[in-house]
Amino acid sequence: MKLPIRPSQVILLLVCLNIGLGFIVLIRYLLTDLETQTLQASEEIMVDVSARLAQQVEHHLSPDQPFGAELCRQLFPTSSPALSTEVKIYNLDKKKVGLNHYITDAQGQVIFDSNNDSLKGENHANFNNVLKTLRGEYGARSSRLDEGDEFSSIMYVGAPIRQGGEIIGVLSVYKAQRDIMPFVLERRSQILTVCIFMAIGMILFVAGVFFWVYSPIGKLTRYARDVIDGQRPTFPKLGKGREINTLGTALRTMREALEGRAYAKNYVQTLSHELKSPISAIKASAELLEEDLPAEQRDRFLKTIVSEVDRSEKVLSRLQQLSLMEGMSELERSEKVPLHTLLEGLMTEYAPIAKTKEVPLISSLTPVSYLGDSFLLRAAFQNLLENAIKFSPHGAQVEVSLTETNEHVHVAVSNGGELVPEYARERIFDRLYSLQNTPQGKGSGIGLALVKEAVELHQGKVRYSTQDGQNSFLIILPHGGS
């Protein structure tokens, strides 16, 4: 069965999507900006280093020490020194200096390179770090050694070397981005992890709020629908929310008020309907008794009066039981009821009546204890057994069985009377519905309605079926404590 999509589910989905999209945008921004900010921070340090080194060269310029490769070799080593102690920065083990520099003359010719003079002799006059610095501007660039490898870029920052106010050379500091990327990747992983956990937390929080708010509303909706469908649902537990409990209490009070009005009307109609016939019979018999009648006729009319009074008492008793059940929205008490003992007692009680009709009572009872209301269960079983005996022809047997499964308890009452017609099988549990012109007389139309009410109060079902040419009434109770 395809379940309908609720507006609350759509809203929750949209909120979660918005949160997810928001965090995706945030993550992309942070991760993209992270590399740029890290490189900018590194570049800022390289600017300071290049300026300091250029200042050192300027400081040693003199007529005896002119600007050239010889001076540069005296000032700086031509290889990157290894670190004297092992340095661990986050998860990176740093073993040697990764910052190098080279010096070009006024024509852009490399005259010195701290990385083993690997660039010496090259002309960098057209590279921005040299070209712009010679013009008196800020010179920097980033160039890849391998165009297919984004991590092969080298960052260059130039600083002017001045003598007498004129730029006579450029000192460029350079560093491989590969040395910086481990920190970027580490920080990316941390940011991604934090953002994912935050997104999950936000989604779970929003889902929790939606569940806290909409779950009680859903329960109340199902409760109202079950009431409209004529079922007898248990009032749901709504939690501790003050507002939703106020709404639930109002809905429950409204249901009880409406059911009370409808019940009063139905009760009066039922009482009038059921007592009209016996009262008429009593009245007619009493009027005839006022006449001078033979003793035999007087006895017959007196028996009619007694019979109709008994019938009226039985109708009133059943209506009282039915009114009690219909006024209950759920069980008011529950106890462990030994169903086999209850059924055995009823069969013993009705044995004399069955014997008078020559109707054998046969039972097959499994010991079962059930958590329920013993009064209501007894009323249900009693009416089924009484109907089975009443509508059984002489010699036909009545069978009562009690079985249980892991999930249900089954009570079946069968008799060999005339089968219920097809057209009546869907209505036999309706109040006041009874079959006309049966050999055993007309029923009250209350007994099976009472059975249905008692069973539904236990969240069970009662069904009619035919089996081996017999009428069979099956009560199915959800397992409640055997």
Highlighted features:
single chain; 482 residues; alpha+beta; Beta-Lactamase; Heat Shock Protein 90; five-stranded antiparallel beta sheet; five-stranded mixed beta sheet; 50% helix; rod-shaped
Entry summary:
The protein has 482 residues and is of the alpha+beta class.
Order of helices and strands: HHEEEEHEEEHHHEHEEHEEHEE
End-to-end separation: 33 Å
> What's the number of helices?
9
Work out the helicity level.
40-55%
Structural class: alpha+beta
Low-confidence stretches: 260-264
**C-alpha geometry:** rod-shaped
Q: Label the CATH architecture of the domain at 7-185.
A: 2-Layer Sandwich
Give the SSE map:
Blueprint: H1 7-59, H2 69-75, E1 82-89, E2 92-96, E3 99-105, E4 110-113, H3 128-134, E5 140-144, E6 153-163, E7 166-176, H4 181-228, H5 242-289, H6 295-326, E8 335-338, H7 339-356, E9 361-365, E10 369-372, H8 374-390, E11 398-404, E12 408-415, H9 447-457, E13 461-467, E14 470-478
Parallel strand pairs: 9-11
Antiparallel strand pairs: 1-2, 3-4, 3-7, 5-6, 6-7, 8-10, 11-12, 12-14, 13-14
Structure description:
The structure is a single chain. Among the domains are: 7-185, PAS domain (Beta-Lactamase, 2-Layer Sandwich); 334-482, Heat Shock Protein 90. The strands form four sheets. It has a five-stranded antiparallel β-sheet with strand order 4-3-7-6-5. Strands 9-11-12-14-13 form a five-stranded mixed β-sheet. With 482 residues, it is of the alpha+beta class. A hairpin with a 3-residue loop joins strand 11 (398-404) and strand 12 (408-415). Helices cover 50% and strands 20% of the residues. The chain is rod-shaped, with a radius of gyration of 49 Å. The chain contains nine helices and 14 strands. Helix 1 (7-59) runs antiparallel to helix 4 (181-228), helix 5 runs antiparallel to helix 6 (295-326) and helix 7 (339-356) runs parallel beside helix 8 (374-390).
